[in-house]
């Protein structure tokens, strides 16, 4: 059986102009297009490629059974998502086995905290899978801030807001520059960790980096602000320079 290639296509941080030439070429050519989305939403990845899909494209939305309704520490969370990814894998695999190429659209880079990774690990040993890398959301965020994220020997650490307060503080203390993702309901814990690390006044909040609604603020000026899903906090390094 000749299985067709499955492509995990990184679309970049949100601006369609920041897609790679390869990603653009594949998106315009492949007719079976899969993408993740929250139920009832269009999906961010699908929004990025609006107007780029080939005529007659067959869209395959993959709707998460759960997002933030239950805690990630709840065993049911992993069970529901595991079943979901397994079902998605079967549908994608079936198309490949029928000789149909599949483009799986990925926000940011496919191998950086992306849902595609869960399909990749389930498909890579049995089906041909090609991954197309992309500009990450954090790169778009620090560029939007108008200042370099690292200088000289600065150590950059990427943190998740889901970490404990103690873990956040420990890692902040051992880094020169920070990117903090998965903020959401963890925002107050992140604020507390930054204050304890004497980094609060240096932190910036970037929302919707590279998108039309992009905003950049000092975090200290956003007390009480409810951060949207596409939000990243950064602390610039101030290391060695000529």
Layout of strands and helices, then pairs:
Elements: E1 6-10, H1 21-29, E2 32-38, H2 44-48, E3 58-64, H3 75-97, E4 102-106, H4 116-123, E5 129-132, H5 137-144, E6 156-160, H6 165-173, E7 177-181, H7 187-196, E8 203-207, E9 215-218, E10 231-235
Question: What does this entry look like structurally?
Answer:
The longest helix has 23 residues. Helices cover 30% and strands 21% of the residues. The protein folds into 2 domains: 130 residues, Cobalt-precorrin-4 Transmethylase, domain 1, CATH 3.40.1010.10; 98 residues, Methyltransferase, Cobalt-precorrin-4 Transmethylase, Domain 2. It has 7 helices and 10 strands. Helix 3 crosses helix 4 and helix 6 crosses helix 7. By secondary structure, the chain is an alpha/beta fold. Strands 3-2-4-1-5 form a 5-stranded parallel β-sheet, sandwiched between helices.
List descriptors.
242 residues, alpha/beta, Cobalt-precorrin-4 Transmethylase, domain 1, Methyltransferase, Cobalt-precorrin-4 Transmethylase, Domain 2, 2 domains, 5-stranded parallel β-sheet, 5-stranded mixed β-sheet, 7 helices, 10 strands, 30% helix, 21% strand, globular
């Amino acid at each position: 059986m000749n299985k067709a290639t499955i492509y995990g296509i990184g679309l970049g941080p949100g601006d369609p102009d920041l897609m790679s030439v390869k990603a653009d070429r594949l998106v315009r050519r492949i007719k079976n297009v899969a993408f993740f989305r929250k139920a009832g939403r269009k999906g961010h990845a699908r929004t990025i490629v609006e107007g780029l899909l080939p005529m007659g494209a067959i869209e395959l939305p993959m709707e998460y059974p759960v997002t933030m309704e239950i805690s990630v520490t709840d065993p049911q969370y992993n069970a529901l998502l595991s079943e979901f990814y397994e079902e998605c894998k079967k549908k994608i695999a079936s198309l490949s086995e029928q000789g149909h190429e599949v483009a799986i659209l990925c926000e940011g880079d496919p191998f950086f905290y992306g849902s595609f990774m869960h399909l990749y690990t389930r498909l890579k040993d049995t089906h041909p899978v090609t991954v197309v890398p992309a500009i990450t959301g954090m790169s778009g965020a620090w560029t939007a801030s108008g200042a370099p994220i690292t200088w000289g020997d600065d150590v950059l650490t990427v943190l998740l807001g889901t970490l404990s307060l103690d873990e956040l503080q420990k890692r902040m203390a051992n880094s020169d520059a920070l990117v903090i993702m998965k903020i959401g309901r963890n925002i107050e814990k992140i604020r507390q960790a930054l204050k304890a690390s004497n980094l609060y006044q240096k932190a910036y909040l970037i929302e919707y980096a590279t998108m039309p609604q992009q905003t950049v603020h000092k975090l200290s000026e956003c007390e009480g602000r409810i951060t949207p899903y596409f939000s990243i906090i950064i602390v610039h390094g101030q290391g060695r320079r000529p």
